[in-house]
Write a structure and sequence with these properties.
CATH topology of the largest domain: Immunoglobulin-like
Helix content: under 10%
Number of helices: 3
Largest sheet: 7 strands, mixed
Number of domains: 2
Distance between the termini: 23 Å
Structural class: mainly beta
Strand content: 35-45%
Number of strands: 21
Length: about 350
Amino acid sequence: MRSISRTTFARAYLAITFFSVSAGIAAEPVALRVESFTVLPSTGPLAFVEVENRQPDPYRGMIALKPPEGWRIVPAEREVVLAEKETKRISFAIELGRNAALNSYAVEVTATAGDTKVVRQQNVACASAPYFKPTIDGNPDEWKDAIGVRFTEGGKRTELRTYWNRRSFSLLVAVEEDTLIGQRRSGAFDGVQLAISPADSRTATSPDKVADRYEFLLAWTGQGTAGKCFRLAAPETQLATTQNNRDLSSLQYDDATVAVTRTDGVTYYECSIPFKPMRDRIRPSEGREFFLSVLVHDPDGTGIRDWGKTAGLWPWQRNRLAWSKWPGAKWGKQPPYDNKLHWGLCASKY
């Protein structure tokens, strides 16, 4: 029996609701977001809060992070001083934390300046890849020891699981969808688009800049379990180039291994990408942090599912230049969110 089944999806859907509450966010003096943990809470990591000054004047306030019940975080609050439009990461140490089976942690962050208080509630996940080398054969049974990150869009569920070893980075994306459309010469088709970026990178806002990311597209060929990987961007790729619908055959990346299967209404995209071309910017080692985000393309169903939305990026962090265009994609009215979401490499989930 497959370890990531439709039943598992149903239980996760009932037990987890990712949410964010911050009324009138655009009018508030600061914006708040708790980042995903990059190692398991039980190991005592740091929790990071992003604070952005949204007003034209300097901001000085106190930031408090309320963890799940039974946890202990220090300090209780920290002062932040921000210049106009400045953003800072504020760290809190998790002295006592517990791992949740469904990898969902309810937190609340508060910014207080005088009589003005901003509150945001989120459910955050641990986004980290344990050390293991899976066989890329379309069978997800080997992925039970990976850390599952789950989200729901349009009533359909998606789960991400990752592994790493010294030679490769591996990814399993389980997509609940009504039908699977394989790659074809014309018309929209299903796929998974992922962006991997160094921890010191930033997405530019001008097309004359470079991509500064490694970006890939996974798709089913329409035959058996065969899948293809296309390399849409490398760090030196001009962003203007990424906004053209280039011929995918010229972008096929044969160094990656891909398998695609479908069982009980769930499509499984399984892929292994070599670290060698990325090693100069992302060195594979325990404790390494980098950026990873995923778009799921379901053109005849939910449309685009964006991990950045679930991870709590702010509405103004949508950026068309963060993702490459490609023939067969069906984009929504709004651009997708930025691709700079924290991810980590760890030894094990135990």
